[in-house]
Amino acid sequence: MTTTQTVDDASEDVRSAPASGAPPGGRREHETRDAYLFLAPYLLLFLAFVIAPFAYGLWISLHEYDYSLPEKPWVGLENYTGLIDGTSPYAEAFWDSMKATWIFTALSVPLLLVLPLLVAMVMNEKFRGRNLFRAMYFAPYVLGVAVVAVLWRYLLDSNIGLVNHYLGVLGLPSDTAWLTSQPWAWISLVGVTVWWTLGFNAIIYLAALGEISPDLYEAARMDGANGWQRFIHVTLPGLRPVLLFVTSVTIIASVNMFGQSFLMTQGGPGTETRTAIYQIADTGLTNFNSGDSTAMSMIFSFFLMLVSTLVFFLFRDREPEGSRR
Amino acid sequence: MSTATPTREPATEHRDDHSGSAGSPAKLRRILQYGVLGVLTLLFISPLVYMLSTAFKTTGDAASPDPQWIPDDPTTQAFDAILGNDGTPVVRWLVNSLVAAGLQSLLIVATAALAGYALARMDFAGKKWIFGIIIGTLFIPPVILLIPNYLITSRIGWLDTLAAVIVPGAAGAFGVFFMRQFFLGIPPELEEAAAMDGAGRFRTFLTVVLPLSRPALVTLGMLSFLTNWNDFLWPVYVLFSPESQTLPAGLATLQNANAVRYDLLMAGAVIASVPVLVLYAAAQRFVVEGVSRAGLKG
């Protein structure tokens, strides 16, 4: 709205401009006005719900922005330093939640990088009903965390759940408290997340596998490369650009884990599976300590961006000469 | 589309070259392959089947430790209970979810198509800056916006209304980026022809560009719908009264209120799943392609 330029309405005739090489200045001004009209609806949303809140968030994090305080006094970096040096009442809960996030990410990301690749390689072979299988593996991902968590809470119920029942059938311990004791709570959260999102990564891998030229495999076979060598020298290099994408997306998703823990373990046992997003939401939206909460979200984001940058350089540095894109 | 053509698998060629070794290893391999696929399918689909079957069980059977894959005593009692219960207005949640996801998708598709077109095709002052800032926000972790957007939504008086789950979420940069990339791939000659005929920018956009963009518009709409339909963190905090909730937020309420009524919970989960599963089945090609394309080019 602030950006829409209606100043140069003088040269109104739209049609004459493109028809006969009009003076370049007028043409461009027209373009600018039209372009901003095209952009206006989105920019309005963007300014109101991305740019303004971003600035507002920074401002809040520098204030004692407590629900119960009528005044929101400026405290500078105190919210940050309090969390970092442990003087904030939320410091311990926050760093525990960061640790929980790290545990979840370290456990889930390797599985979500390797297992979907195996699935994709199996599915990359030609066989009947391939599309049906693809569709099925992707189906849980379409469901959303609320359905997935409610469903698995049932299946993992320690008394009546299917999981314990079939473990019993196999002669294994059948009384595991999957959601209320450790390390089972982590194993459950990671397992459910893998089940839920494996298909997403598999589909991306699958598309990338399809782009690798069969000639490369043929050439490798001519040179006497066995299956493993073909995987190392043809498949993996071919997947490199996509690996960067899959790794980043998976890390970001794991680090942002919330719904599984909120609905399945309620952060428990104790607060052990309470992740950073959970802690930030709880501090800001349940306890209404917005100053602390926004400071937490900034610190959290700082680490997340650090990790993303690291991943990016890890994959970029070793990129071979001839790879496209 | 792009994935289907160049896939001539190593497996099929394997048999052509060394005709001697083609017999049993290939067969063994096939058996192994179907074995793996079978186990995977079981793991992926059986939980969903069990969810469906439990939704049709009596409360007692749903809580029985002996699994019933086909209900002994099939009943729609769970559906009747949650669909007719005032405390858990599931029909209302369903309508809310449909309205929210539908309107947000429309809003995203419309605003992103317009903005994406300007950024792809038009030359204007400040273009680089605007594009740079929009793309830059793709890299901001969304949690930074959580608290401030809550306060802004509250300030406008949108808390506990569907506007809160429709509008702020439509401001994301992905749609604009997605549409811009698509428009860049359309040959500009078609638009130039229309411009020669005297059509203005907007008319060219409506009559030439949009019809060509149907696959991209459908894909973006579909992805937006799925995302909104399944969104959990935001609705669970901004919607609190039972009649304003969407299905995912409602399921959380249902779980808190009926922790042991698994028949009810599974019926709720089925109601929340069916629309997206149907949508997914109908538009599977678009969704999968949209996702895999994002992976290849993103």
From TrEMBL, chain A:
As for subcellular location, the record says: Cell membrane
Give positions of region: Disordered. 1-29
Q: How does it sit in the membrane?
A: Multi-pass membrane protein
Alphabetized Pfam families for the sequence: BPD_transp_1
Give the UniProt keywords, A-Z. Answer: Cell membrane, Membrane, Transmembrane, Transmembrane helix, Transport
InterPro entries to which the protein is assigned, alphabetical: ABC_transporter_permease, MetI-like, MetI-like_sf
Is the keyword Cell membrane in the record?
Answer: yes
So which domain of life are we looking at? Bacteria
Tell me the ranges covered by the ABC transmembrane type-1 domain, including all copies. Answer: 98-315
Indicate whether Amino-acid biosynthesis appears among the record's keywords.
no
Membrane-spanning residues: 36-59, 102-123, 135-155, 184-210, 231-255, 295-315
- CDD domains per record: TM_PBP2
Q: Which PANTHER family match?
A: ABC TRANSPORTER PERMEASE PROTEIN, INNER MEMBRANE ABC TRANSPORTER PERMEASE PROTEIN YCJO
Family of the protein in this entry: Belongs to the binding-protein-dependent transport system permease family.
Under which name does UniProt file this protein?
Sugar ABC transporter permease
Which organism does this record belong to? Nocardioides renjunii
